[in-house]
Amino acid sequence: MAKALRNIKEIEIATCKLMEEIMDMQEEESKKATTTNVVEFPLLTSLSLEELPNLRTFFSGKYCVRCPSLTKLRISGCSKMMTFFSSEEQQQSMTANTNLQQTCGLINSSLSLPAFFNQNVFFPSLEELTLLSLCGLRRIWNNDLPKESFSKLASITVRDCENLSHIFPSTLIERFKSLKLIEVFKCASLEALVEHVVVDPKRRQKGLVLLVKEVKLWHLPRLNKLVTSSTKAMLSLPSLTNVSLHTCHGLRYLFTNDTTRTLEKLEMLDLSGCDNMQEVVAMEEGEEQKSKVVKFSHLRTLKLRCLKSLISFNSGSCAYEFPSLKEFTIEGCETVEVIVGDARCKRLKDRVPTQQPLLLVEKVEFPNMESMTISHMNNVEKIWLDELASNAFSKLKTLTVEFPQVIPHLELLTLTKEDVVMMPQYYTFDYLRKLDLACYHDENDAFPSNFLLQRLPNLKELVVGCSSFEEIFPEDVLGHGEVTSCGGLTNMEKPLKALRYLKQLNLNKLSNLRRVWKHGSLMAEILKQIEVMHVHECHSLSIIFPSPCSFRSLRHLHVEDCAGLVHTGTVTSLVHLTELILRNCGAMEDVITNDGIGVEEISFYKLQNLTLDDLPSLESFSLMDCAFRFPSLEWIVVKQCPKMYIFCKGALRTQKLGKVLLSDEDDEGRWEGDLNTTIQTICTESNKSVAGNQ
Question: Fewest CB within 10 A of the end CB: N or C in the chain?
Answer without folding.
Answer: C
